Amino acid sequence: MKFINKAFLSLALAGTFLVSSCDSLLQVDPRQSIDANGALNTPDAVDAALNSVYARLRSVRNYGRDLFALADALADVGQTTSNSGRLIGENNNQPNAHFQAGFWQNSYFAINEINLILAGLPGVQGASAAQLARWEGEAKFLRALYYFDLVKVYSYIPTAIFQAGVTDEGGIPLVTEGVITSGDALNRQTPRATIDQVYTQIYTDLEDAKRLLTSRGVQYASGGAASALLSRVALYRGDWAKVVAESTAALSSNVGTVLSGSAYVNGWRTPVNPESMFEVRFALAEESIGVNESLQSSYTALLNLSNKNSQGGWGDFIPNATVRGFFGLTPLQIGNPASDNNNWDVNRNSDVRAQLYTTGNTVRGAGRQIECTKFMSKSGFAYADNVPVIRKSEMHLNRAEANFRLGNATDALNELNAFKALRGLTAVNLSGDALLEEILLERFKEFAFEGQRFFDLKRNGRPIVKTTPAVNLPFDDFKILPPIPQREVDGNPNLNQNRGY
Amino acid sequence: MRKVLLLGLMLFMTGALAFAQDRVITGTVTSTEDGLGVPGATVLVKGTTIGTATDIDGKYSISVPAGSNVLVFTFVGLRSQEVTIGNRTTINVALESDVTALGEVIVTGYGTQPKREVTGAVSSVKGEAIQNLPLQSFDRALQGRAAGVQVRSSNGLPGGAVNIRIRGVGSINAGNEPLFIVDGVQLNNQSNAAFTQSNPLAFLNPNDIESMEILKDAASAAIYGSQAANGVVIITTKKGKQGKAKFEFNAFAGETQPMKFLDVLGGSEWYDRERTAWINSGNANPEANALNSMGVLPSNWQTLSRDELNNIGLGLPTYDWQREVMGRGRLQNYEMSVSGGDAKTTFFLSGSYNYQESSFRPVDFERGTVRVALSHQANDRLNIETNINLSTFQQNVPFSIDGAFLGNPAFSASAVLPHNAIYNEDGTFNTAIRGVLGQNIVLVNEYNSGVQRTNTAVGNIITTYKILDNLSFRSLFGLDYRLLQGDNYRDPRTPDGAGVRGRSTVQSDWRTRFITTQTLNWNKSFNGVHNLSAILGLEYLSETREGISGAGIGFPTFQFRTIQSSATPESITGFWTGYRRASAFASVNYDYKKKYLATVTARYDGSSRFGENNRYGLFPSIRVGWSMVEEEFLKSSSVVSEMKLRASYGLTGNDQIGNFDARGLYGGGGNYSGSAGIRPTSLANLNLGWETNSTLNLGLDYGFFGNRVTGSVDVFDRRTKDLLLSQPILWTNGFNDIANNVGELQNKGIEFEVSTVNIDKSGFRWNTSFNFTYIKNQVISLYDGLEFLPANPGIAVGQPVGNPNGQVAAPGAWFVAEYAGVNPATGRPMWYDINRNITYLPLAADRIYKGSNLATHFGGLNNTFTYKGFELTAFFTYEYGAVVSDGQYGFLRENGTRLALNVLREVDSRKWSEPGQITDIPRDVKTNGGNEVRGAGRNSGSAGLLKADFIRLSQVTVGYTFNPTLVSKIGLSRARIYAQGLNLWTYTDYPGYDPEFTGAGTGQIPLTKNYTIGVQIGF
After folding, report:
1. Are A206 and A226 in contact (CB under 8 A)?
2. Which of A182, A376, A497 to mutate to test the interface with B (most CBs of B within 10 A)?
3. What ipTM describes this predicted complex?
4. pLDDT, tens digit, for every residue of A361-420?
5. Cβ separation of A219 and B663 shorter than 8 Å?
6. Closest by alpha carbon to B930, among B898, B902, B900?
7. Using N-to-C axis directions, what is the helix angle for A129-154 and A223-237, rounded to 10°?
8. SS3 for B603-632, per residue?
9. Which of B668, B672, B934 minimises the CB distance to A32?
């Protein structure tokens, strides 16, 4: 009987224990995450949160590949090889083969993180004024960059809006307040702002960034980078005087160096391109995008330049006849046997940029092609290269174009010829539309495989003239714009889909 | 009549004569089934409490008092017999097996119940039914055995994942796995292997299983509360029985074989096809381009004529890559068990070894297990019991579980261009493989290596104390511990390892689950007609999981294969997670004369997984039954031997979500420029609670002709409310989704089971059992009045949600533009737009619903023939109604137009080749990624969808059991030999490897045929 009592007692005790202290019994806290409330209260946390925003630029859907390779595939830069089957639809301007949903998603996630950082700055304990200025400046630079990338992709560019007010669906949703509660997340349905509102917001953020920032390395935002980005934004907005002013400011900043001759070519062979004013850093082996979708793999089948027989990536997207023509590129056998890939190179003209192209390899069984070698694992491990978002050279071309538009043709011509000299080209003497065409052509040559061409055509309202396949995309085609991710349109009655989708 | 009277009188007289003295009767009790003695059978003098039990050989001796003249022989599972003694002193009886199964006891939640009193929907699968099947985990063996239980192997990996769905798919985002309980220990069967699939349930040797009960309706499962929404599978392992130690030795061995090789084109055929494609594309040099696609264009091709080039192409050789990498595998199984005990202590010990190779080398499975079951009756009231299952299994891993990886043999074997030689003439590997699949998979397979190891300990200690004769206390402490380790090496001699000079990846992942259950069992009978019993219990469970993994690159040479030899650490990561649950439950059982039956249960669960405001849930249930055979109007029926109506309704919960899904968190992520990053990872939902599952079940158990025909019919309506839905958040708001309780899902259906003894005559016996299930699965509602989920329009009101593969969201119904075949005039693929007009470029608005990958009809058919010692079993399973997309087939269906891949002969032979041809395969073109310019891809919409219906001869067994008296002469109590075949025949028009798989289907190892021969010896 004694045992019975004990048994009952222990059961009763156990029961009481369970009921009375269930809440503490059921309390389990995560160990690799922290509560969102107050997560950004310390300087270290803000630094870490900003790192995440920078890191999102590395995404394949952003600068990891698409803002360079996919954008160029949409334009008239190259042709596809079918080696892995990637970028074919984009190169053919197939419907829906365009910037992907992940680009929108990743960019808006970054923007939300920025908005949360900015909202949290007043609550950071023990932060110095310098830290606060740096955080605010970098956050605003990044917000401007993400919004600029989004708006240039999903909307028409102010200098060439197709049937403005008739078919124009406007800009993109402009969100400047962070979401961290389920209530906001479930209920906020932001409509598209006008294109002008988006550009105005980008201006505001970049002006703040310029004011607040100095430089701590080109992998981070700086005042010089803010001016440089502002120069390009103003170029897209047709704000020519601003372009001249900001290009000049950027050129005079201590961020980045304009290179010429072989130094320019060597700039593409060092981890950090000295021309960069802002570049996305790939620092660790685990950040490598890998053999399928990295820029290197998209552009070349080579693993490195020292041995062309090493199996590398796919080489899915290679220069077309136009680009090969710019640099006089034709295959050249430089030794025997012909089956050895190291015995092949290309003929080149005097343009130093021709050094950035060579023959690839046949290791994957595909034919030997002429490929772009701007991205060759410079970070020190396979398939990872820092991505130069803005190179200082662009400032000359921005300023030349803006000066032309402002009627300062002489300044424009002088700047163009000075730039051509840097690239080993002789001066030209042009005026009028021919001068503008030459400036744009120089821009095409300079930034081939750097994702600018599609937007240069788009901002000028020009058709895309394709060589392979020879099916052109007129400016009035709906496929100039990508579809806004269908889930966003389905879930947000205030959001209009782009025409044609 | 007179005779009867006379006989009665005589009996009475005999009794009277014997009145004065006790008699000793001896004899042997045997079973008619195998002729062996039945140990432990009860021999009772009728009308008295005098009784004895048979010994190990089935012998007994009993003293019968004067005045008694009838002995009653009983044994569980055998039909009782009453024998009049007369003037005999030796009485041998042979007990028949009880086909009526009236005495069968079913394990239910926290207790057992005679089958005839069960009022819920419970299926029972006996251990014998799945004995000696060359399958690594018992879940796979459940396929086709029980109505309402759909089992699909994910692939042919030995020890791989098995997709088991009890009464459909009840959740879109939370898990759909049933709760598995082994010896009272609730298992976590989540698989976390990094390099292959390691089914956690493969820890248990299926031959150690005594029985499996599947609680299907919510009312039966409700006592398991928040984990029971997807049903409960209770596994009872073998225990020792009183008697002399019995040894069992069991061995089988055999081989696995591919069920199918895909019929693909040869080298010259592929060339010819490619040339035609170039011609279709208007190319001026089709021969040269075709040779170039195959990487065999001579450098002097411009000097050759078209005919000469053509001759090169038509002379290309063919190599059979599939037969090079797919082939026969070995399988073997050895085990030994000992069981026995005395009146106080019983034991069961077993050890086993199992090995099986898949059809793709080197993928295999190797397991060793040790099992101990001990029970000790310390005194009249106290019983102590323990069950310990220890197991380790190791698998040589595949290149990848699935996926279109160049180095993946399961993907590349059928798709690599056939003119590529596997070996050079000197016997070395050919590394110049042409076409998009530029890796020699035989080399890759040979050079890479990796193993995945799973060590599991599942055990318990149970103390039962009889407080009163009708009140007992049971205390269980259980542990489920699992350690997963693995390493995988990408050899620097393979293309994937070359760029990084070799990569070694390692994983270590350990999970500890502790459970304790304290229960009180009480029963009482009032006036012999009102029977009442009750269970009251408390339970606590805590689980933690922790792991680390890392990778290193840069190895000196290929001989150095472990991570410490790597020059550069590439990545290192780890994690910790955990949860806890505390519960109280009660169950009350009542019956009136075993005629009217009722059970009421309730469970109250609290879980750390849910939002602060919604941590606790109540899960009640009620079951009622009416055993009509107990009524006077059926009692005397010669036709109806069992008739019971059942009805039940209950609530269960689903808590299979992430441990911290309700929390708003910042987590690590987004390192930049060498320093760490953090970012918001989830939104808080303080109100997040259970997904509630309610099932209304109506059932009928029937038996006719002395239970030669038995079975049951159930209809059910299973509703899942407050779905744990990952409600999409607009990306512009910075998050992807939030776990929220919204929406409703329905699975309604009918289950039918029948077992018959068709012939039972002069030793020949033919048994048949058949089951059939039909389930209609559909979304009833979502949220905010939405007709479909913005993030996945396949999840739509009125449509099935599909069958999720593993720990992922339900895929939804197929929502695609309907394929309209090929334009007979031009060979272009066509689709229907939403107005049923033909379009070449279907838009989002043209999509319609086209079924899902969840089968609507399935079941099994088993036939067993026995004659003397011979037996023959033929077991069929079938599935109907699933529509799947098979990535492997999809790649091959492109017919080489987009990528230089081999093609299926049956697809190629159907391709459009001349105007007027009506077919479903478009003409081949080479431009534009193999698609018509500005036309949709040829596999778009429903073009690539396949019906996955099949009937399969899952198992054939031919066996012979030697005459027991014969084998006893050489000291054996039992000897049986058998031959067995699995998956010998499949009826299907499926064009891919096999219709039974889950997932994308790309590069997955298909199921195999297995042949074994085996021997079972008892002594």
Report:
1. yes
2. A182
3. 0.94
4. 887 766 789 999 999 999 888 899 999 999 999 999 999 999 999 999 999 999 999 999
5. no
6. B898
7. 30
8. EEEEECCCCHHHCEEEEEEEEEEEEHHHCH
9. B668
